[in-house]
Amino acid sequence: MSENIESESPLKRQLRTIIFGTDTPAGRYFDIALMVCIVLSVALVFLDTVEVFHREYGQIIRVLEWVFTIIFTLEYGLRLYCATHPVLYARSFYGIVDLLSVLPSYLALLIPGANFTLVIRILRLFRIFRVLKLLRYLSEGNVLLRAMMQSSRKVFIFFFSVSLIVMVLSAVMYVVEGPDNGFSSIPKSVYWTIVTITTVGYGDITPKTGLGQAIAAFTMLIGYSIIAIPTGILTAEISQEVGRHRDLRSCNQCHKTGHDLDAMYCSRCGCELDSLDAPVENDA
Amino acid sequence: MSENIESESPLKRQLRTIIFGTDTPAGRYFDIALMVCIVLSVALVFLDTVEVFHREYGQIIRVLEWVFTIIFTLEYGLRLYCATHPVLYARSFYGIVDLLSVLPSYLALLIPGANFTLVIRILRLFRIFRVLKLLRYLSEGNVLLRAMMQSSRKVFIFFFSVSLIVMVLSAVMYVVEGPDNGFSSIPKSVYWTIVTITTVGYGDITPKTGLGQAIAAFTMLIGYSIIAIPTGILTAEISQEVGRHRDLRSCNQCHKTGHDLDAMYCSRCGCELDSLDAPVENDA
Amino acid sequence: MSENIESESPLKRQLRTIIFGTDTPAGRYFDIALMVCIVLSVALVFLDTVEVFHREYGQIIRVLEWVFTIIFTLEYGLRLYCATHPVLYARSFYGIVDLLSVLPSYLALLIPGANFTLVIRILRLFRIFRVLKLLRYLSEGNVLLRAMMQSSRKVFIFFFSVSLIVMVLSAVMYVVEGPDNGFSSIPKSVYWTIVTITTVGYGDITPKTGLGQAIAAFTMLIGYSIIAIPTGILTAEISQEVGRHRDLRSCNQCHKTGHDLDAMYCSRCGCELDSLDAPVENDA
Amino acid sequence: MSENIESESPLKRQLRTIIFGTDTPAGRYFDIALMVCIVLSVALVFLDTVEVFHREYGQIIRVLEWVFTIIFTLEYGLRLYCATHPVLYARSFYGIVDLLSVLPSYLALLIPGANFTLVIRILRLFRIFRVLKLLRYLSEGNVLLRAMMQSSRKVFIFFFSVSLIVMVLSAVMYVVEGPDNGFSSIPKSVYWTIVTITTVGYGDITPKTGLGQAIAAFTMLIGYSIIAIPTGILTAEISQEVGRHRDLRSCNQCHKTGHDLDAMYCSRCGCELDSLDAPVENDA
């Protein structure tokens, strides 16, 4: 869109279409190849932590890890080279994720035992979101995201009230059960309360006294009934979002709205309707 | 419907009505007898794995297993014999399930210790779906299926996002807790994260460090709140499906739509309405 | 309503008003006294199973148990005496529950160690439902019951499909994990699968092999996502029931319907509306 | 509003604006400072129960605890001094909470080992609700609260029915499993049933016999399906509340109602709409 785009080399322009675009077949193949590389490289990181694999195939895994690192380094260099605004790209969310998927391998070379780089290498997975664009799944994700945004205030109030209840119950259980039964401190007691109120129930810490078991039963019933609240909030919002989504499906000929999500033709004039995603992507 | 049906023997035609049909009393009795055989034969497979039963009644169970195998073999032969298109039947979903319910017993005769045939023998249960047709429960199942199909894209996006969160949390927990506390590899850590985020909480692997317990509590709260999302998606879709189902209930006389699901007479002209399942089965 | 009611003694008629009715103050006091007796007698049964209470207060508990038995026997006799149709009462649901709350104590006298009578004695609790009538909570219960009846077919299809999945998964886990890891038989494996798919997760049986843990994780995700289905079904039905309930709130003057559940006056003509429960109880 | 307000000192009036009000910048800073103090003082109580912190920083924690106690005492004194009606304030809900957040520290001075004062000190957290007023989150909380009030009768009926089922199942499990398998009394069996029916599943008490495991599986399936009921009730109510909330958004110019929750301008005449919270806070 700016002037210096006009003067750039055709190679750079073509590379940009392939690497950043998803409309040409070449761009699509590039995205799919990239997604496969990401998934394989993360699978390698996972397998390398398994004792047996590390012993047997440790050498191969390390080589493959370097192959992927070089691929991602090349890709990052190409993106920097052919981006319209390299600095803007490097500072963008995806630019940072792209850099983070390359750096840890070099760091691991310098600091051998640094397994905290593991976690950063796994952040590569977020690059898949970029590839998802070509799958046209985003409009569905938008409905979910908007529903969550709409209900975020109610959910905040909910979690705030729940955390107050959790803290009071934790203090009560610490006093009732005491360190002898595993409730060694209030923070540990908070851990137990969350394990109980979310109905996870590991059983690593359990009440032993009668009173403690009664309070635990009460905590469970609270958890059981308040699980309904976020569900209710979100369901109400998603219902509204789906309804609004449907209203967006208007006929280009007679402008009738409110068609079914899977309708292909206008129910009044019989004209073909736009595909489901179109109206949403236009305003997104 | 094709010409060779006309020339076939009346016995074959009558057998087909009984074996494949559900409209005549004989066809219904055949289906019920078949269902009883399936349930009994699967119950036998289950009981045979219980130590006590195997020791005491092993002989009887083996005999009965052969009786059912012969019954199902005969039934499969009869179906092949009287099907309008034997090859089409043999290749259809139910044709393969019917064959699979017979073969494993013969295989078990040749390879004595092959208890993987167990699982295939249990697939017999899917034959019950065929029998369910006569119970007129399918229209209800259709409402559920359609609701699930409609929401499958949103659910896919949901599970994709959840699996990203699961992998990142697994890597974090592997680094924080380490092999000493049971998180021996990232795949094992993924297992723990799924156990936690789905609120199952076996307790076979639990965090021991303070930081690990804090992250675990955070994981539980995520699981607790995102359980609301698929519920919200599906509820919105089922509500719409039920509404659409109601719209299908139109009066044959005055064509008024939108009657209650349990209404017997048209609320405007008083004519008797079709039964609930009729309009759906017509278009299914 | 029949002729012999006219000729019966006034005492009998008054007793019936007190024992069976809930409209007079005396009838209400009788019901509340009865509810207190039921709750106390069940609390006694519960406390008697606690080691400490049994040792310390066993004698007192046994005496009180007899006091309550005599009270309930007297009450049952009075009900039989003053019922309009004693035989019909004795055969009715509540008649049988009333008898069952008396008999076990006598049986326990004859067969000392029979602690199966415990369970029958606790069935007394169902008598509280009769007392609830006076609390006017039944119309709310009706909304729930009707919603559940409406959705029972969908829920049946759901549970039928789930039980098929459970059985196949159980057989797979039995083959994969085997008796060495606690999956000693398929029925036990079914128990494990239900513990997992309902997200209870005791942890008394857990998968040990890598493949088993992968299948377990898959089972949990199934359980996690299908928990949404019954919720969706029921929510859709309850929404409809609440809506229908609202439609029943019509103004006696101008016949406008659809008033809020907590509205006191007609929104069009300003006349006072009937209380919430009235229209429902009339047609129930 | 009463006459003696006019005659009071300007200092007192200004103090009241700062301490009780949330409209002036000074009042807002006071509230935020107070919230920070509350959170810090509760964090201190929590950390003090951790063995390591108590040993290392016990001295500092005790000093800081006294600093906060003096701050809260001063604040309570100021509130009493500048309240329009000191007696009404002292008797109000927040007045009592304010007093309770000060007293326990003095009590702990007199009775050294009294760790039941812990719980009371944590009740300080409820003072945060007062501060939340300035965050304008209350209208969202009102929607939730009203939805819960509306559905409280249905939820009561639900919990009453569930508790009957729990008691009967507990008695059955006590008889089936008996004290040898951990079901040492019916109250303990009730604890197990609640752990199971809420899908918490600690695993500290688990059925060992085949029949017990079958009943346990049945209990889980009940818990799994009835979890849908409160969700359904609440979702239906929240949907209605959100709808009603939307109806309240009327245009001041043309009086059109039913605008979207995030709409800024009237969809008919284009006038600016009031902010979301305004109409609710007016009638609350």
From TrEMBL, chains A, B, C, D:
Q: Which UniProt keywords apply?
A: Ion channel, Ion transport, Membrane, Potassium, Potassium channel, Potassium transport, Transmembrane, Transmembrane helix, Transport, Voltage-gated channel
What InterPro entries does the record point to? Answer: Ion_trans_dom, VG_K_chnl, Volt_channel_dom_sf
Which spans are transmembrane here? 32-51, 63-81, 101-123, 155-176, 214-236
- Organism in which the protein naturally occurs: Shewanella septentrionalis
Q: Where does the Ion transport domain lie?
A: 28-241
Q: Where in the cell is it found?
A: Membrane
Q: Name one GO cellular component term.
A: voltage-gated potassium channel complex
Key word Nucleotidyltransferase present in the record?
no
Q: Name one GO molecular function term.
A: voltage-gated potassium channel activity
Q: Which GO terms describe its biological process?
A: action potential
Q: What is this protein called?
A: Ion transporter
Query: Its topology with respect to the membrane?
Result: Multi-pass membrane protein
